[in-house]
Every structure is written in C-alpha cells, then in structure tokens.
Specification:
This protein is α/β, with parallel strands linked by helices. It folds into two domains: 216 residues, Aldehyde Dehydrogenase, Chain A, domain 1, CATH 3.40.605.10; 143 residues, Aldehyde Dehydrogenase, Chain A, domain 2 (3-Layer(aba) Sandwich), CATH 3.40.309. It is built from 15 helices and 17 strands. α3 runs antiparallel to α6.
Amino acid sequence: MDTIDRIKKVRSCTAALAGSDIKERNNLLLAIAEALQSNFPEIARANQADLEASGNLSPAMRHRLEFNREKLDAAIASIKNVAALPDPAGKVLMREELDKDLLLEKISVPIGVIGMVFEARPDALVQIASLCLKSGNCLVLKGGSEASNTNREIFRTIIDCSRSTFASENWIELLNTRDDVAQMLKAKNLIDLIIPRGSYDFVRYVMQNTSIPVLGHADGLCSMYIDKTANPDIAIACATDAKTNSPGTCNALENLIVHSSIAPFLLPDLAKAMEEKGVELVGDPRCAEIIGCKEATPQDWDTEYLGLKLSIRTVDSIQEAIAFIAQHTSHHTDAIITQDPQAENLFLGMVDSASVYCNCSTRFADGFRYGLGAEVGISTSKIHARGPVGLEGLMTTKYIVRGNGQIAGTYMGPGARKFIHRMLDTNGPSRILTLHTPQLDIPENN
C-alpha cells in the first residue's frame, strides 16, 4: 500500500472516531498507558538499538532520542492526565436565539486528520497520539529515522491496544521513509493540519514545502530581563534553571538581559553559578568587562544554542530591554525578574510572545505544566492556537442552526421580519446525538 493509500485509510476513520463515545476513547487511553508499562522492556531494547546506531550525537539530541524509565513514567502520567480531562468535543461555545424556533449554536469539533512530523522525540509520539485520540482526531505520524526502532515499538503497542479496545486501529498510521514526508506534505485534501517538531531547519522546511496549514514554531529564542529592582537570589535561581535545567529544549534561556545598575553586583555571582553548571558565557563589552567573558558577536543575539552557552546583554532601562527582545525574540517565551509592579505590568503588557513570565523560569512553557495533560507542540502563531497546544488547540468549530421551516426571504425586503438575536446560556452540551458512523470510502481524486 503506497503512502497516499495509507493516509486515505486514516481519513476514512475520521467520522467514526469523531462520533465515538468519550468513554471508549478514555478506556483506550488507559489501556495504552498500561500496555506501555508492560511492554517497556521491548521499547527499551528498541531505544537502545537507536542510541547505538545514532553515532556521535550532541548531548541535547541524545537526550531527546532517549526513552528511559523516567520518560516512560512521564508519558504514562501525561496519558492518564489527558484521560481525566473533560471531553473537548461538542462544547457549546455560543448559543443564540435568532428568532422564535430558530436556534444557533457554535460548538467545538475535531479538526479531522493531524499530520505529525517530528525528529528524535519518541515521547512526542505518545503525547500527540494521546491528545489526538482524546480530541477525536485521526493521526498520521512520521518520526525521524534516528528513532525508527523506538517509534515502531511504541506504535505497535498503540495499534495492539486499538484492535482489542476500540472499533478500529485505522485512526492512526506511522510512516517510515523520507519520501513519505514529501507525499504527506502534498496530501492537502487528506490531512487538515501539519504539526512539525524538531530543529529550526527541519520546521522551516516543513513550513516552506506544504500548502497544508502548519502549527508550530521554527525556533525557541527565549530571553530573560533582570530589572534593577530584582531580588538577586531569585534572578540567579531563575536564570540558572532556565539555561541549565534542559538546555536542549525550545523553552531554554538563550539571551539574558541585565540592567546596568545591578550588573556589577549580580553578574559575578551569576557567572559563578552558570560556570558551575558548565555554561559558556558571552556578553556585550560592559558584561565582558565585569566578568571577563568573551564578547558576543552580532549573530549570538539571534542564535538558539540548544546547549550550554548563554549571551548576556546590559541595558540602561526596561524600555531598552523590551526593544531588544522585540528585535531578537522568536515570540516563544520571555521573562522579567523584578520587584517593581510597574515594571512587571509594563513588561507583561508590551512583550509580544506566546508566553510572558514574571519572577520564574522560562522552563514552565510546557503543556503538562500548564495543566493541559500534554502538548503536541508550542505555537508562536497568532492564528488559531498560541503557546503550548493541548486539546483545545486540536479543536475547531462549526455552527449549527435548528429551525422550524424558516426561509431567508422572510427576513428581507419591505415588512421583513426582524431577528431577535438573543444570547442564551451555554451551559449543557449541544443536543447533537453521538453517532457511530461507518468508515467512509475516499474518492480517488483526493
């Protein structure tokens, strides 16, 4: 079966999955969590084979590829959290009486088929699969070749559970080759949304080579501004955590901005804390003079290191810090450390990023930590979903109108009947019946 036929097979399951009962989907989620636990020895062996075949990876890439007991426990916890969340489908977002016996509802519905393309992140497969299943979206996956054995074993676990617990395993498909990616990106009428997770170049490639809508971010260039009123202990703790807790992630700190009045007192202690963690520091001339680090190049301010290197910039005002962030941010996550409420409010209001923090590490930019259960990725787009994308970001909407024989002509021309347009309470689900729709044949011209 070629790639397009495999994607059509997934597309044919959209109505059945969207119309399934939430209890069925939750039961399958819990079955998957249990099966991942029992099948972990096989998954671990597959992951070890991937690690041995990968050669000399950077520490950041190796961390992403590794699927150890800690990541298994996190994956199982995220699946259970997703299962415990309310059903995102069928929510009444707006209910309006247009006229007597003419009712309008705006409800949440699944997007349809999600195409997930990711590099070296076996745990991403678990997260996206659990969120898609819960939200009633079918899923086409393509993981990086460096994690092929691990992805295949996790996928087999999900398929085995689907066969025994659910009506069909066709809601999910794992593609294998690089050519599959090219075919996937061309499948405009079969895939509704592409979500890429990986390096800057990889995500940019996906964005530039498909006409399917793409949800994601190309890079995670995060900044933290230490204001003149900052508590030094809080500043050092937050900056060190943001840089070193997991330096290979998109929410790690890359640019540190320090007010010039606090820099002489703060930077020596901060540099010591960073150097103890193995961080290489570069900075502007004032910073270099204070701590003796190398001077930063113009390229450093726009580099996502994804490793133990940090650029430090000194500024003379919060306005200058905000302007610097506006010039160099990727609009992912930026933070301020301050004890001044006015500075806090100015920064939170003026910095235009998906997540903006005060007095905490940028590493909190994560769907699990936001209480979303898990995330399919982080979006820096302003259209549809922004920030960590959980269940809500995998939903779209449709309008439903229920009438009693009304026609549009009644409301047009001389003596036209007027609309009531009365907003109603949205509590309670829509009166749409749950339908267990049979699989549909997809025409060959799709």
